[in-house]
Every structure is written in structure tokens, then in C-alpha cells.
Amino acid sequence: MKRTDTRALFRPLCTEIVSLLRTLSPEDWERPTVARAWGVRDIAAHLLDTALRRLSFHRDRFTPPAPARPLGNERDFVAFVNDLNAIWVDAARRLSPRVLTDLYDLASQDLCDFIEKLPDGAPALFPVAWAGDRESAGWLDIGREFTEIWHHGAQIRDALGAGPFAEPRWLRAVLEISLHALPHAYREVQAPDGASLAIQISGPSGGSWTLRRSGADWNASEGAEANPTARATMSDDAAWRLFFNALPAGAAAGLVRLEGNRELGAPLLRARSVIV
Predict the structure, then answer these.
(1) Are 36 and 103 in the same domain?
(2) How far apart are CA 199 and CA 230, in angstroms?
(3) What residue numbers bound the domain in which 50 lies?
(4) How far is CA 86 from CA 89, 105, 106, 212, 262, in A?
């Protein structure tokens, strides 16, 4: 997969999210979202949390407190992250919408200042867990941060009936980064060498990609094979909802059209580019 440079996209995205938050009524802040137990205000609080954490750990090289219990496996890590998120969101319910918005405005602009100056070729501070990395390139970690902001912003817009973001390039970047999850998602899928899944995503942010078995590994690349073993077709709206766990249970099968070897296409419906 090619390198996707998202550094210049942070500032306009964060600015648009803040601008929307400033228009919300008290009722809007309490609207439910696809993030299950979190409403709009909780997602806004989480965005503030992730911006402050990134600035603290990455820009300032602050060593975070160690987990209370050893993280012995992936399940332990997921539980640890979920606890961190929940503790912050719960405490932030003491803050008014104006305070949350003003704080996120300041923190997100500081984050943009920092991200724009980062070299994207340096090693990442943290590996991208959902890509199965033990070490990640800096540009992929930066891109993961961008997808985090974008998809939570999209959840807020969805809850408000505000429609998609107006800039399709942002979602295109989100999809390019998210597709790095596929080799890891297929790591236990057995198939002959050369077996392939072509992925066609329609819409203004869409494109074509191929996931191919090469020896013992799966590799993703841009562009679709003419005669793949299986083919998956979906809209760009369905794609982000699939990869970011924003679909009701069972809904993916109705939004993703699978052709050819359906067994090879089925694991795509379970692929995620978030920690779940």
C-alpha cells in the first residue's frame, strides 16, 4: 500500500468539527450516537482526551502511568484502553458544552501545529495495533490519528443529521489508512498462493484495491485485479461504517456485495480499523 500523508488534513477537519459543535443546542449535545453508550457530548469529550493524550505522550514525551495490571494479551490491552476512555468521558460530564468546545478548540489546534511539523518517515511512537504492527511507520500512526478524529466527527454529524463532511478527500484518506487493517484481519485465513479479493468502493471518496495471498502472507495494494478469486463492492459511506464498527449487528452483509468465492470475502465483513 502506498504512503498516505494526512498531516495537512488535520487542521481543516478539526476546525470544521469545532465549528459544528459551536452551533449545537443543549438537546443536540445529548443526542445518542452509533457509539452505543456515548452521546454527542461524550464523543466530543473523547476527542479532547485523545488530543491531549497525543500532545502529552508524543509532543512532550510524558511517560504515561503504567497499567494497574499487566497486559498479558490483546484482550487485556483492549480492556485497558476502554477503561482509560470511560474514566475520562465520565469525568467530562461535569463540563459544560462551551467548556468542552473551547478546550477542544485549543487542544486540536495545538495538535495540528505538532502534527504538521512531524516527519512522516520516522518510526511511530506507538504501533498501530489494528494493523497487527509491532512497529509502525510514522505516517501510518499519524494517519491512524486522523482516522480517529474523522470517524468520531462523522459519528457526531450522523447523530445530528448533518450529513457527511463536505470534503471527500478526507474520507478517501481515512479509507486508504483503514485498508491497512486487512492483512491482519486475514492473518488466519487459509487460501492458495495468488488468491485475491478485489475491493471496489464507490462514491466520491472511493477507489479500487486488491488483497492478495503471497506465500504465507496477505498483502494489500491499490488497484483491482481483472479476475480476482472474490470481489467485494460497497459505497464509501458503507466502508467507513464497516471499518469503524458503526453498523448495527448483521447490517454489513446487506451493504457489501460479495461475488465469486464468498468464503474468501466473508472475513472482510469482520475487519475493523479501530480497537474493539
Answers:
(1) yes
(2) 9
(3) 7-166
(4) 5, 21, 22, 38, 38
